[in-house]
Amino acid sequence: MSTLKRKEYAIGIDIGGTNTVFGLVDHRGAISYRGAVSTKKHEKIEDYIQDLYIALQPAIEQAGGIHNVEGIGVGAPNGNYYSGTIEYAPNLTWKGIIPIAELLSEKFGVPCSLTNDANAAAVGEMMYGVARGMKDFLMITLGTGVGSGIVANGQLILGHDGFAGELGHVTIIPDGRLHPGTGLRGSLEAYASATGVAATAKEFLETRPEIETKMSAYAKEDINSKVVYDCAVAGDLLAKEVYEFTGKVLGLALANFVMATSPSAIVFFGGMTKAGDFILKPTQKHMEDNLLPIFRNKVKLLFSELDEADAAILGASALVWESKL
Amino acid sequence: MSTLKRKEYAIGIDIGGTNTVFGLVDHRGAISYRGAVSTKKHEKIEDYIQDLYIALQPAIEQAGGIHNVEGIGVGAPNGNYYSGTIEYAPNLTWKGIIPIAELLSEKFGVPCSLTNDANAAAVGEMMYGVARGMKDFLMITLGTGVGSGIVANGQLILGHDGFAGELGHVTIIPDGRLHPGTGLRGSLEAYASATGVAATAKEFLETRPEIETKMSAYAKEDINSKVVYDCAVAGDLLAKEVYEFTGKVLGLALANFVMATSPSAIVFFGGMTKAGDFILKPTQKHMEDNLLPIFRNKVKLLFSELDEADAAILGASALVWESKL
């Protein structure tokens, strides 16, 4: 029997391109303090760390002092679990390699674990969400971009360098749509993200101007995924077809992922999940159509039930409790 | 300290569609007895087991009796590690679900572990081959078909149902070439297998009859991957282009797999590897071209160095020593 006792709290930090949100989280996943600082406004990482340090003091006070905090877990774009560094994140102000885990650990005097935001979400889902008890599942975040976390044998797949799980960037349509951020063509993210949905809607409007649609009431630059959703809800056929097409690409991609790691479920998270059955039904149909028979009708497609704002914090904090990913 | 001592030998059995090969293997991976029986000629599984039992007696005798054998490891198409059953293997005589591990275990009186042939090869490669010491790698078998085994965090990825690692069946070219065995279109196996190479050569000959090529000396039904190889070695440009095209599809597929699990190496195994640089160079180029920058120039492409006949036996026997996959 071990004489070591885990401390009561962990701090979860989710670093986004615009804002950083954080929370004080206990073992059961209850968040007892929430806060936020701007990510974008700090050009220097040192200023950002200092701002975060100040903003977190009330949380630490509420915990009864830093000695009651087991550690800090951070989810960040291009966050590397092995090195504790954020590496060349295109959406962050700080360029190059940022040793964020070391900086935070030194500043706060507690251990700090880092992984990328989608991996953090997968860990959160496994500990507190719909994936509780699952040993093999995929987490797919459908937001401005498409992120993913792969869990197999009960462990997060990090890869030899910590960068595994970039399913948003796999090629689904060779020589397909250009992704302006990566320069790659036909990637999942170019179609199945909010940005991709808007691009599909614009393409449909341009190439099929004869079709009557509520979307034509909008200026081209105002077409976004929310417009597509609102029009689909209002019964617009072309808007529904945008989701049908998106689901075709996403379903094909999911079939590929399923035949690779054979998960029991795929958990969706992020703004695009608001589209509900508009996106889920075609996705499920095309996934099943592209699977070998031995994989069919086995994989559950689930929506995350975690509150969107909380999930990121929970996922990051869960890194602290998961001593071995 | 444990008082348990592992026995000296394991039996490795590789069940192929035509033949079954087996061997007596020690801890260091030395095969001291080799044998084979026909798979195809036994319509009844009981007859097959009996034949295998008789054929293995000299091996067991050489081990000094079955009490010196730790167990039997079996690699078989559609072999399921969790259930110990071969399920609906299209290339085997026995249909439906075959409880092969139970049948062998009862017959021989030792434990029996089963997995699919490509997974067995991955385990063999990790224990005795070029992947020794690697915790994250992919094994791709390029033979009549395309098989695969995924190792991450030092463990074989089996998935929730034991069927993970079917990378040969992922769709690379949507609405592409029909795979007559699966009915799916555009799968990796439809292009990057020996069968796929022959199909590409036939397509090229048909659609570009104006091009001078040594391959046109062959009747269409005689075109196979060996003909393509021989012509490429003799400097034939169209035959080389067949490999270039195959490498383009394979490279694109590998890029997708790399961005999923970020392996340190991809190990190729099987008849197609004889094509050497003809296939390796275009594969590497197209893989790199389709990767995000953070993954580039990191993944080693390696050919298995295990003797082809032995590798299957070694891989299967390694299942016995690997108590936890």
Short description:
The structure is a homodimer of 325-residue chains. With 325 residues, chain A is of the alpha/beta class. Helix content of chain A is 37%, strand content 19%.
Please give a structural write-up.
The structure is a homodimer. Chain A is α/β, with parallel strands linked by helices. Chain A has 2 domains: about 10-125 and about 310-320, ATPase, nucleotide binding domain (Nucleotidyltransferase, domain 5, 2-Layer Sandwich), CATH 3.30.420.40; about 135-305, ATPase, nucleotide binding domain (Nucleotidyltransferase, domain 5, 2-Layer Sandwich). The first copy, chain A, is built from 9 helices and 12 strands. In chain A, β8 and β9 (about 145-150) form a beta hairpin. In chain A, α5 (about 195-205) crosses α7 (about 235-260) and α7 (about 235-260) crosses α8 (about 275-290). The model of chain A has no long low-confidence stretch (mean pLDDT about 95).
